[in-house]
Amino acid sequence: MPGCGKCGRRLDIIANQVGRRDVCPHCGSELHACIHCRHYDETVAKECKEPFAEVPSDKEDANFCDLYQLGDGADRGGSGSKDALLSAAEALFKKKEQ
User: Fold this and answer.
1) Domain carrying residue 44
2) Which of 37, 61, 71, 93 shows the smallest number of beta carbons within 10 Å?
3) Total structural domains in the chain?
4) Alpha helix (H) ranges present in the chain?
5) Quick one: 56 exposed, middle or buried, by C-beta within 10 A (0-12, 13-18, 19+)?
6) CA–CA gap between residue 56 and residue 51 (Å, rounded)
7) Are 30 and 6 in contact (CB under 8 A)?
8) Residue 62: what pLDDT?
9) CA angle 2-31-78, nearest 5°?
């Protein structure tokens, strides 16, 4: 189910029907913006997984991108805390005690 890339709340939108002026009913964020797109990823070049996209400098403002597809509102990249990332890495590489 689609979700807001800013507040993470679920949106009642069917078949990716998002207009340029549509806003999130929960936080008021403009929905046709990079941070809500399924191609948005803070860890890749230009913060967009779509190689042919003309990426705007402001990822939170509405834009006219033809490749826009509403994402699921999940965290897509570098917004995790440093402590949480270190804990996950330690848990992954922790030696098993015998």
Assistant:
1) 1-98
2) 93
3) 1
4) 82-93
5) middle
6) 13
7) no
8) 93
9) 75
CB 75 within 8 A of CB 4: no
Low-confidence ranges of the chain (pLDDT < 50): 79
Q: What is the DSSP letter of 75?
A: -
State how far the Cα of 71 lies from the Cα of 73, in Å rounded to an integer.
6
CA neighbor of 5 nearest in space, from 50, 63, 26: 26
Tokens of 91: 């848990």
3-state secondary structure of 40: strand
Dist CA 31 CA 21 (whole Å): 8
pLDDT for 50:
92
Q: Look-up: residue for tokens 């030696």?
A: 95
